[in-house]
Design brief:
By secondary structure, the protein is of the alpha/beta class. The chain is built from 13 helices and eleven strands. It has a seven-stranded mixed beta sheet with strand order 4-3-2-7-8-11-9, sandwiched between helices. The chain has a two-stranded antiparallel ribbon with strand order 1-10. Helix 3 links the parallel strand 2 and strand 3. Helix 8 packs antiparallel against helix 10. The longest helix is centred in the last third of the chain and has 17 residues.
């Protein structure tokens, strides 16, 4: 990997192929080889690991990970890049390249991607899923969010994303960056910003700073959530009205399912002040609130 993914190498390959990076696909290629290695190193890959990579590019990170992991499933939506990447993978039997969108919708990974991952994990004794990628900016949020809603559940996610998004995921209550995404991720994972990166380490240069985020899903955390889909839906519904007081935001989120008196009963039972805002609640408080509301709906 001494020359691959450098600026001159990328520009030459693109020039020969008569193509240019596509902003509609969020293409920004990491040209600092030390940072490519840091991403792979952070993921602590081993032969039991099946790695999902979204955004193959020319396959620099893919090739490096294939040397360490059991199998790499890499997804590339750009047919020109997929064709060039295939040339690099001819002699790598543990790489599967899917030329398609990784998402079926913003709320769902593509079934073909999920089924491929399941098959590859099942083929390795003790197999486990990890996601490691320089994620295209335009799909980073749905990729990370939706991976926590599939089986097999990932044991690690290491991704290069916008710094702003990394700060949202790791934000604490009562801050401007704290959001439904913060709650969803923190309710199930421990996350850490490993490194921030200037635009100059990418080609083309993005307009924002980036970060390498290390996400470690925790089964003990996830086990606190009785109904994952319900929790996700309710948290998003409450945060749509984040500037409203909690009582009003909750009423809007459960409209036509619970009335005012039932919502008041929920808040009273949890000893939550109706005049606080959603952004003041911790992930644990959100879990307790969602479960109490769910039980109230079941008994209504």
């Amino acid at each position: 990997m001494s020359e691959r993914q450098t600026l001159s190498y990328l520009q030459k390959r693109f020039e020969l192929a008569r193509i240019e990076p596509q902003t509609r696909f969020g293409q920004n290629f990491l040209i600092d080889l030390n940072l490519v290695r840091l991403i792979a190193k952070t993921a602590e890959l081993g032969r039991r690991d099946v790695v999902l990579e979204v955004g193959t590019g020319l396959g620099s990170l893919t090739t490096l990970m294939a040397q360490q992991a059991g199998h790499v499933v890499t997804v590339e939506i750009d047919r020109h890049l997929a064709a060039m990447a295939r040339q690099e993978f001819d002699k790598l039997p543990n790489v599967t390249l899917l030329e398609q969108d990784a998402l079926k919708s913003k709320s769902q990974l593509h079934p073909a991607v999920v089924e491929t991952l399941r098959a590859r994990v099942a083929a390795i004794p003790g197999g486990r899923l990890k996601m490691v990628a320089n994620l295209p900016y335009n799909v980073a949020t749905p990729i990370l969010s939706n991976l926590l809603d599939i089986e097999p559940w990932p044991v690690r996610m290491v991704a290069t994303i916008q710094r702003e998004l990394a700060e949202r995921i790791t934000a604490v209550p009562r801050t401007k960056d704290y959001s439904a995404l913060s709650v969803w991720m923190q309710a199930q994972c421990q996350s850490e910003i490993v490194r921030t990166m200037a635009p100059s380490v990418f080609w083309p240069r993005p307009k924002v700073e980036s970060a390498i985020l290390d996400i470690r899903p925790q089964k003990i955390l996830r086990g606190r959530i009785a109904d994952l889909k319900y929790f996700h839906h309710l948290v998003r519904g409450i945060f749509i009205h984040r500037r409203k007081f909690l009582r009003s935001a909750l009423l809007s989120a459960v409209k036509d399912r619970l009335d005012k008196s039932q919502v008041d009963e929920v808040l009273t039972s949890l000893e939550l002040d109706a005049s606080v805002r959603a952004e003041q609640l911790t992930p644990q408080q959100m879990i307790e609130l969602a479960e109490c509301v769910r039980q109230k709906e079941l008994s209504a």
